[in-house]
Amino acid sequence: AQTVTQSQPEMSVQEAETVTLSCTYDTSESDYYLFWYKQPPSRQMILVIRQEAYKQQNATENRFSVNFQKAAKSFSLKISDSQLGDAAMYFCAYRSAIYGGATNKLIFGTGTLLAVQP
Amino acid sequence: DTEVTQTPKHLVMGMTNKKSLKCEQHMGHRAMYWYKQKAKKPPELMFVYSYEKLSINESVPSRFSPECPNSSLLNLHLHALQPEDSALYLCASSQLGLATDTQYFGPGTRLTVL
Predict the structure, then answer these.
(1) What is the pLDDT of residues A3-14, one digit of tens each?
(2) A2 lies within 8 A of chain B by CB
């Protein structure tokens, strides 16, 4: 079974600085998708970024980028120029690329609570 | 537009009440999901509907009853709940397929069972 591990329960960053959130996963599959979701105190889960395992290029979305190391099964999220609105719980998630049935499931890590200091 | 809406935002109910949560999406997605989330924990999958048919039930107690009347709507009927069922209930939807099967979440319903 696949597992996702986020080893940093809480992190803090100064406004305008850069922070990296860690995520590791375990799988025997060769094709899969990885996601970072953000859940602010307003509680809506928002997709931050997605990475396809077959792509070597790291995904980027504005100030958010990932460092995807497939061999190491590592998928970290870098937030550049941190803003107060980035304060949230961040969840790393895995989904199998095999289509259908139980493989629609997202497997979540335990989350990292990010605080942004003014 | 990646909007999933949920009503109500907050719900307080007694253990003998019957209530329903509603979820709606107009993105043409053919998969819809119910999750339960406790504070500072990741969401736990409850049910998945694919093409309006229940495809996954994660051994959820029968006091939770899902319903998918059409491809845009998903309901969760609640009856005889317990205080430990108090949580944030999240709905999500996705396109189905491989590259596009990303789940988009609604804002959730905060449920309190007295």
Answers:
(1) 999 999 999 999
(2) no
